[in-house]
Design a protein that fits this description.
Layout (H helix, E strand, L loop, with lengths): L1 H15 L23 E4 L6 E7 L4 E7 L5 E11 L2 E8 L8 H4 L7 E8 L2 E6 L2 H9 L7 E4 L2 E4 L3 H11 L10 E5 L2
Antiparallel strand pairs: 1-2, 1-10, 2-3, 3-4, 4-5, 5-6, 6-7, 7-10, 8-9
Length: about 190
């Protein structure tokens, strides 16, 4: 029951945060890169949000431990890639609760979230795809990326190649991504 509540909470949080999950990754096998400047601990101005990036050179990914505004913690796997002149993180949850029963396990969805990032010295800015922008664009047929709408959620179902073309085409659009949040390197 506790695990089910965690999954429901995660789904509700995705909607509230305006996240747009994808069934496919943004990266292909050749895309992930590591940047030494991303590794380390990053905190918000009020020190409530914290992200610790640890590079895994073997798998070319980052293990991320995060703490949100309310003090909740979790673990993510992040793959960093460059599309054009932009850097993106593709994140998935790495600490889903262990489910021993086959029936609830069928409900777990390994979704990907895409975040555009900029690193300037000891400042990291990040912005996720804007849910309202996607939803409005799909409704007005200005956006034609493959997707499925389920209740209040929109899931992107496009291929990795289509996703890369989509985010690259809209990476410079002001409304396509949420207002960037800023983190500072903790020394």
């Amino acid at each position: 029951m506790r695990q089910l509540m965690l999954l429901v909470t995660c789904a509700v949080a995705a909607v509230m945060l305006g996240c747009v999950p994808s069934l496919q990754p943004l990266y292909s096998e050749k895309d992930p890169i590591l940047l030494a400047s991303l590794a380390g601990t990053w905190v918000s101005a009020d020190s409530k949000e914290k992200f610790i990036f640890k590079a895994d050179e073997q798998e070319i990914k980052y293990e991320v431990t995060c703490t949100d505004q309310e003090g909740g913690t979790g673990k993510l796997e992040a793959r960093l890639l460059r599309l054009g002149k932009h850097l993106f993180l593709d994140t998935t949850v790495s600490d889903l609760p262990e489910v021993k029963c086959a029936y609830p396990k069928c409900h777990l969805l390994p979704a990907h979230l895409f975040t555009k990032i900029e690193i300037e010295g000891d400042v990291l800015r990040y912005a996720t795809l804007h849910f309202d922008w996607i939803k409005k664009g799909l409704e007005q047929k200005k956006i034609t990326i493959r997707h499925e709408a389920v209740k209040d959620m929109t899931f992107l179902t496009a291929s990795t190649k289509e996703l890369q073309e989509f985010v690259l085409a809209h990476a410079g659009e002001k409304d396509a991504f949420q207002e960037p949040k800023e983190l500072r390197r903790q020394k």
